[in-house]
Amino acid sequence: MDYLFIALAILALIVGLIGDVLPVIPGPAVTYLSLLFLHWTDRFDFRSYEFLVIVFLICAVITVLDYVVPAWGTKKFGGSKQGTWGSIIGLLVSVIGLPILGISIGPFGLFGLLAGPFFGAYFGEKIAKKQEKEAWRAALGSFIGFLAGTMMKITFTLVISVYVIGDIIRGFANM
Fold first, then answer.
1. What is the distance of C-alpha 35 from the center of its chain?
2. Which residue, 38, 41, 81, 174, is the most exposed by fewest CB within 10 angstroms?
3. Residue 141 burial (10 A CB sphere; 0-12, 13-18, 19+)
4. Exposed/middle/buried for 25, CB within 10 Å: 0-12, 13-18, 19+?
C-alpha cells in the first residue's frame, strides 16, 4: 500500500504544478495532498502533525492571496474600485467561464487566464471614465499581480516537492 501512496504523492506533485498555471486545478491544494499521501504510509512519513497544519495554513493563505493579489496590483498601479472589481470579475470569469467553454487547457486557456484580470481591470477603469493611459496602467498592475500570485503557487509547489522527494529518498534509504 505504501507504494500506491508514493505514486499518488508524485502524481499530486505533478498535477499540483500543472494546477499552478491552469485555472481548473487548485495547484497548492493538490500539492498539499502529496504530503498527506506520504503521511498515510508506514515508512515514508517523516513529518509531524504540526508541520502538516502549518503547511496547510500556508496553502490556504496562498490560495486566498492568489485571488487578492491581482486586485491589489490594480489598486497599486492607480486603479479605481471599478478597476479592482473588474480585475476580480475578469479573474472569476476566466476561472469559471473558460472551463465551461472547454478552453481550460492549452495556450488559449492560459491566454484567457492571463487576459481575464487584465481586461477586467481595463474595462473597469473605462467604466470609471479613466483616461486610456490610466486604464492600461491599472490593467498592467492586475497582470503583474496575477503573475505574482502564480509565482507564489509555483514556489509553494517546488518547496513541497523538495520535502516530498527528500522523504521518499530517505524512506528508501532506511529500508
1. 17
2. 174
3. buried
4. middle
pLDDT band at 110 (very low <50, low <70, confident <90, very high): low
Write out pLDDT tens, residues 113-123.
778 878 888 88
User: What residue has cell string 513529518?
Assistant: 47
Q: What residues contact 69, with CB distance under 8 A and at least 6 apart?
A: 145, 146, 148, 149, 152
Q: What is each CA distance from 62 to 43, 124, 155, in whole angstroms?
A: 30, 25, 10
H helices present in the chain, as ranges: 2-19, 27-39, 49-76, 81-92, 98-100, 107-127, 132-173
